[in-house]
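Saturday, quiet lab. Running sequence design on the C-alpha cells for the scaffold JK sent over.
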C-alpha cells in the first residue's frame, strides 16, 4: 500500500502549482530542461529517421497520421514512466541498475565506434515486415501505429533514465521529457545537420551519458552534486566539444595545405 501511495503522491506533484512556479522561475531548472532537450535531440535524431522508414510503406496521407498517433503514445508513456520513475529512482538498487545501464550505453557506443559501427542503427532501419505479427493482427495502418508505439517506448527508455540522472525534480523531468519528444519528431533534421557539421557532438552526448551514470551511482551513497554545479559541468562539456571540433578542423586544414 505504501508503494501505491508513493506513486500517487508523485503524480499529485504534477498538479502542484507552487512547484510549477518554483521550477519555471529558477534559471538553473531551465538550464537543466534545456540540457534534457538538447541531449534528447542529439541521441534521438537518427531515431526519427528510423520511425520515418517504418511508415514509408503507407500511403502519404496516412504516414503523418501514424506518426502523430505514435507521438501521442510517446507522451503517454513518458508521463507514466516519469511518474512511476520518480518514486522508484529513490530505491538504491534502481539507481544502481539505471547507472549501470547508462554506463553500458556509453561504453558500447565507444566500442562500436572503434569497430566502425557508428551506422549500426541506420542499417537496422529496413522498414516493417509486411507479414509481421502486428500487421496480421491489426491491419496495415494500425499494425504500423503499434510498431511505431513500441519503437517509441524502446527509444524512450534511454532518455528517461538519462533524465533521472540529470534531475529528480518532477517538473524538470516532465517539461524536459515532453519537449524532448517534440524535439525528436519536429526538428530531428536540424540535429542531424548539426551532428554532420560538428560530429564530435554525438561523442559528447555519450560522454554526458557516462557523467550522468556516475552522478546517479553517487546518489546511492548520498553523494549529491548540486544542480548548478552539474549544469556547469554540462556547459563545460559542450564548450570543450566545440573547441575540439575547431582544433580538428584546423588539423585537417593543415594536412590539406601540406599535401
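Result came back. Writing it out in full:
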Amino acid at each position: 500500500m505504501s508503494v501505491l501511495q508513493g506513486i500517487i503522491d508523485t503524480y499529485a506533484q504534477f498538479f502542484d502549482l507552487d512547484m510549477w512556479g518554483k521550477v519555471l522561475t529558477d534559471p538553473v531548472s531551465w538550464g537543466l530542461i534545456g540540457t534534457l532537450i538538447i541531449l534528447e535531440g542529439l541521441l534521438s535524431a537518427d531515431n526519427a529517421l528510423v520511425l520515418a522508414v517504418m511508415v514509408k510503406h503507407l500511403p502519404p496521407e496516412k504516414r503523418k497520421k501514424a506518426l502523430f498517433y505514435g507521438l501521442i503514445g510517446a507522451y503517454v508513456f513518458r508521463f507514466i514512466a516519469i511518474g512511476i520513475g520518480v518514486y522508484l529512482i529513490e530505491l538504491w538498487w534502481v539507481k544502481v541498475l539505471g547507472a549501470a545501464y547508462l554506463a553500458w550505453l556509453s561504453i558500447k557506443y565507444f566500442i562500436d565506434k572503434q569497430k566502425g559501427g557508428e551506422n549500426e542503427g541506420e542499417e537496422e532501419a529496413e522498414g516493417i515486415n509486411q507479414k509481421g505479427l502486428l500487421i496480421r493482427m491489426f491491419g496495415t495502418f494500425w499494425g504500423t501505429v503499434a510498431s511505431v508505439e513500441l519503437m517509441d517506448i524502446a527509444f524512450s527508455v534511454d532518455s528517461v533514465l538519462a533524465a533521472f540522472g540529470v534531475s529528480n525534480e518532477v517538473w524538470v523531468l516532465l517539461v524536459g521529457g515532453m519537449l524532448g519528444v517534440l524535439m525528436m519528431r519536429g526538428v530531428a533534421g536540424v540535429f542531424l545537420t548539426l551532428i554532420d557539421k560538428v560530429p564530435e557532438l554525438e561523442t559528447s552526448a555519450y560522454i554526458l551519458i557516462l557523467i550522468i551514470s556516475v552522478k546517479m551511482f553517487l546518489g546511492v551513497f548520498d553523494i549529491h552534486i548540486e544542480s548548478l554545479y552539474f549544469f556547469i559541468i554540462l556547459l563545460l562539456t559542450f564548450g570543450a566539444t566545440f573547441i575540439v571540433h575547431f582544433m580538428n578542423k584546423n588539423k585537417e586544414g593543415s594536412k590539406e595545405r601540406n599535401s
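Notes for JK: The chain has one domain: 2-247. The radius of gyration is 20 Å. Ask whether to fix the surface positions before the next round.
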